[in-house]
What we know:
Two copies of one chain form a homodimer. Chain A has 15 helices and 16 strands. Chain A has helices at 46-51, 61-66, 70-75, 79-83, 95-101, 127-136, 155-179, 197-209, 226-237, 254-262, 272-278, 310-314, 317-325, 329-355, 359-370, and strands at 4-9, 16-22, 25-29, 31-34, 56-60, 88-92, 105-108, 111-115, 122-125, 141-143, 186-191, 214-217, 246-249, 267-270, 281-282, 289-290. In chain A, strand 13, helix 10 (254-262) and strand 14 (267-270) form a beta-alpha-beta unit. In chain A, helix 8 (197-209) packs across helix 9. The radius of gyration of chain A is 20 Å and the shape is globular. The A-B interface holds A 38-40, 42-46, 63, 67-68, 72, 75-76, 82-84, 297-298, 300, 314-316, 318-319, 321-323, 325-326, 328-330, 332-333 and B 38-40, 42-46, 63, 67-68, 72, 75-76, 82-84, 297-298, 300, 314-316, 318-319, 321-323, 325-326, 328-330, 332-333.
Amino acid sequence: MAFFKVLKKDKKSSARAGIITTEKGVVKTPVFMPVGTKASVKAVTNEQLYEAGCGIILGNLYHLYLQPGIEVIEKAGGLHKFMNWKRNILTDSGGFQVFSLSRIRKIMENGVEFKSIIDGSNHFFTPVNVVEMQYRIGSNIIMVLDECIPFNDDYEYTMNAAKRTLKWAEASLKEKKRIDRENKSRIFGIVQGGFIKDIRKFCARSISEMDFDGIAIGGLSVGEKRNQTIEILKYTAEFLDNKKPLYFMGMGDPIGIIEAIGSGVDMFDCVMPTRISRNGSAFTSGGRINIKNKKYTYDLCKLDKECNCYTCRNYTRSYLRHLFKSKEILSSILLSIHNLNFIFKLVDNSRQAILSESFESFKSDFINKYGKI
Amino acid sequence: MAFFKVLKKDKKSSARAGIITTEKGVVKTPVFMPVGTKASVKAVTNEQLYEAGCGIILGNLYHLYLQPGIEVIEKAGGLHKFMNWKRNILTDSGGFQVFSLSRIRKIMENGVEFKSIIDGSNHFFTPVNVVEMQYRIGSNIIMVLDECIPFNDDYEYTMNAAKRTLKWAEASLKEKKRIDRENKSRIFGIVQGGFIKDIRKFCARSISEMDFDGIAIGGLSVGEKRNQTIEILKYTAEFLDNKKPLYFMGMGDPIGIIEAIGSGVDMFDCVMPTRISRNGSAFTSGGRINIKNKKYTYDLCKLDKECNCYTCRNYTRSYLRHLFKSKEILSSILLSIHNLNFIFKLVDNSRQAILSESFESFKSDFINKYGKI
């Protein structure tokens, strides 16, 4: 069975509907992958994710490596058994976290040294050990180690980081082929290159030429404006091997997702839907709202009149406002369920629209109703 | 249908098995009622409570009155609809909270004035308005307003408070009869009297003589030693009308519950099972453990080998330790589910033992295995 198959291409955009097949089952694309950084998608149970139709979640090697440690997960029989998740797991290499969370780190040609955010101890990530650890914990889709740079316009700095990431990508791929002869796991390369088009093109072509199972677009959503994100994304996508699944790392807002689907992206992840839930925010078909707003005090409607998730079937805005204001944990639970379902429905409906050749009108209807973010 | 019926009395103790019937369904006794202070049992969904067989939860008038306010709940169609809870709700009057949480309060013969812990505004609770508000929000079992005093041995102070509570009990009962002619809700009196036996006896007899549907034992678990609690409880119970259900307010530890069942108590509530969950503690058949203990790092057993709850069916101690140490919300969710199930099973098994005439041996077996608290 092919890992990735495109079932239908949109005629007016680069959007496509496809399927990814792994030993853990079939995932329909476009797909949104909730982030379970530390082996738990925050505030929800696995069953609540299954009920929402979620077929793939993310784990993060950087966090799992520091806590509980790879050995703990390995002794439990891998990450799936450790957290009792029966479906697919993509693990991020932790490149982004090493560069964003570790204040003290040292980039070398063969890897990156960093101090633990938990106890200050020293650690060394290399392209090779990062692949090896993801494989050991049973990740279905392994991400290579990449160097994530902050938003900037320094050509030389960006190019040096990009070249290192490409070198690391080759080393990662080689290690993956060496240890996973049966090809049980899959591995994705990551396109970096900052916001400089030349370098993006260079990275996109280089990664496309390597024998990866999929291609991730990294280094975006790092503080730039949304139109810059989409511009660089569209530009980058032109040079990618689109026979492979394309994954936009760190995109979670509805408008960004639907724009990226139109640019040919198949996979998304982001902490946003669960993070905003803990702050009382909710996606609705009419735009984002904050449930703590006083106007919801007596509002007996559901969060989103077009939603049929567990939260919307069972609870009113009035009750959800009360839970949030009372700092009840149930507030985070119910909003997380809703916001994840909202994004799942967005990608599912996009898929249906692509299959029925109506993606462009679906997209413009959605954006018109949702409004700008 | 009688509100309360004793099905079986234990021959060697005062334990009994019974049923309580309300318009929201049948509740088997002895019963433990999880505390949903602010219209949510902390960290769990209603479905998780239903799955655990929970037939009755607590709400707290004091907290609900301050947030979201009685009017919000009333406009939602009552507390059941507001929080979408389909089974029974007992509401506490908030007497305990007025006396324990409000630093600024003034006790008068006809009620108690207090300042909101939220915004400092002034409020006045009387026996009459407290009953009326509980009735308005649709409580199935209403508790009278009582004066809760701290642990002390001052006879005159204790007696004055007790007399006021008895006077308030009469006023509460009168108001309940006036507004609830169809007897849709039930109302319980509360026995106070501190730790002075004379006054306890006086209160127990006085409350028993009034036309309440049930009798609560209040003013215990306020900082005294466990043997003092049980001694006063046993003493008090002798003077209570045991044709009515007896409710021990604020008892949640396993040994205390099983001792109290042996003294004839039918109903319990306490924040303890959910509160300790948020601190990483778990009841097990071999005693209480704290999941953060290093020895659980690689422990692939379930929390309690004799438990079959959702948490124990699906997760290991190793994973639960990781979640707690990683401050994941799922830690509170999974431990709350387990600890509530543990207490539900304890009261259910006690009931089965009473019905099969083996309560005393069940009790001593449980205590021997569980150990001292």
